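Saturday, quiet lab. Running sequence design on the structure tokens for the scaffold JK sent over.
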């Protein structure tokens, strides 16, 4: 992974699992890792990269806060337009795009596991989503 250029990671986001398997997981060692994890071609396009893996981000931040006596930098490899669907993800034009299609909104909602019914995605603007007052997310935020 450390030898893969950012542009190639962006390309993997736009391709299907067969392409990713052929061009990235293309060694016997990497193929064994996929098999051991039971990963199919359908799993590969939605793998969380380091910059989108919450546990890795937390671990990096924790390690950085424990470092003393010298500056610390966290480099996070991310996908441009992550979770916004195939019309936005890894597209150079994503900064100029202003609206998500209903299909893209559904993929975004599903990828982030948001409890928003299809009917609420039909208007001119996407719905505002606020977690329930007793949700784990808000409890976490209020504790901090």
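Result came back. Writing it out in full:
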């Amino acid at each position: 992974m450390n030898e893969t250029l950012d542009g190639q990671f962006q390309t993997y986001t736009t391709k299907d699992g067969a392409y990713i398997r052929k061009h990235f997981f293309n060694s016997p060692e990497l193929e064994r890792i996929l098999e051991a994890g039971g990963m199919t071609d359908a799993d590969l396009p939605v793998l969380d990269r380091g910059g989108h893996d919450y546990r890795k981000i937390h671990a990096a931040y924790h390690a950085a806060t424990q470092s003393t006596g010298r500056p610390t930098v966290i480099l996070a490899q991310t996908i441009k337009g992550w979770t916004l669907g195939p019309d936005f993800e890894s597209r150079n034009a994503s900064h100029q795009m202003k609206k998500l299609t209903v299909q893209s909104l559904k993929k975004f909602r599903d990828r982030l596991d948001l409890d928003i019914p299809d009917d609420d995605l039909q208007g001119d603007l996407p719905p505002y989503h606020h977690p329930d007052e007793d949700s784990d997310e808000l409890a976490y935020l209020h504790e901090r």
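Notes for JK: The two ends are 34 Å apart (CA to CA). The first helix runs from residue 6 to 14. Ask whether to fix the surface positions before the next round.
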